[in-house]
């Protein structure tokens, strides 16, 4: 029930967030095209992630799925919250991030040790949350992970 409630909150907040807070341009790419990138590349990894999870690219939110790929984070509700803890540890600060963390902490108090672990992982990594990943799609995932200690 709480997973359903959190997912509904996300769905209700996604469109206003995309429209009013995300100032970046949408990437002009689709998941089929991503599968034509070299197998070890970030682009191919993103395409594989999208197909595996039956997702489509969400305009202006492409970076979110890239973070999943780079940090190897799952897509369950508590893992999504954990990823926001990771990003907080990595230095990202946004109203949306704080809302997800606050809501997630209230709804998933028994996952606090996981959230703290994710925060520490993010803190240990070199800051990368601000990068323009659209220009890195041909780079090997492993190179990016090693460079930023992800």
Strand-helix topology:
Blueprint lengths: L1 H20 L9 H4 L7 H11 L9 H10 L5 H13 L5 H13 L4 H13 L16 H7 L3
Keywords:
single chain; globular; mainly alpha; 150 residues; 61% helix; Coenzyme Q (Ubiquinone) biosynthesis protein Coq4
Order of helices and strands: HHHHHHHH
Give the uncertain stretches in residue-range form: none
Count of individual domains: 1
Note the main sheet: none
What's the end-to-end separation, in Å?
33 Å
Shape descriptor reads: globular
Organism: Flavobacterium nitrogenifigens
Protein name: Coenzyme Q (Ubiquinone) biosynthesis protein Coq4
Overall description:
By secondary structure, this protein is an all-alpha fold. It has one domain (2-7, 38-147). 61% of the residues lie in helices and 0% in strands. The chain has helices at residues 2-21, 31-34, 42-52, 62-71, 77-89, 95-107, 112-124, 141-147. The protein starts with a helix and ends with a helix. This is Coenzyme Q (Ubiquinone) biosynthesis protein Coq4.
Question: What is the compact description of this entry?
Answer:
With 150 residues, this protein is an all-alpha fold. It has helices spanning 2-21, 31-34, 42-52, 62-71, 77-89, 95-107, 112-124, 141-147. It has one domain.
